[in-house]
Amino acid sequence: MDTTDERLREILYATHTVAVIGASTSPDKPAHFVPRYLAEHGYAVLPVNPVAAGAELFGETVSATLVELGRQVDMVDVFRRATDIPPHLPDILAMRPLPRVVWFQLGIRNDEAAAELEAAGITVVQDKCLMEEHERLVGGGGHR
Fold this sequence. Notes:
The chain is of the alpha/beta class. The chain has helices spanning 5-14, 30-40, 89-94, 111-119, 130-137, and strands at 17-21, 44-48, 56-57, 60-61, 75-78, 101-104, 123-125. It has a single domain (5-137), classed as 3-Layer(aba) Sandwich (Rossmann fold).
């Protein structure tokens, strides 16, 4: 995967709707404050977490699974341990249309899962913080 600044900037500007696997209701956790940051910067953020299903985060109802979203997403942002990613692959690959990007947050790398997603035509970014990359490459204004 090409993760040059130019390519990451293209991804950030082309993305409008982000599903967040592992979104947290705890404000002190990255899985909460990163998606909150995205929502504050103009992205539609769709939280996914079976434990918090039905709660409201970032102006949206938390879904238990990606399948329950019922909406097209541009990106799936993953806040799960690398070893916990494979069970999510069938849901990601069943999405129609497929998301253009799957982003594994900082500290998360699973080359086998990435290869499977890339084989389906999905761009994968691994081991990078979406908020930090947005701040660095786009800045504090919106993403559009």
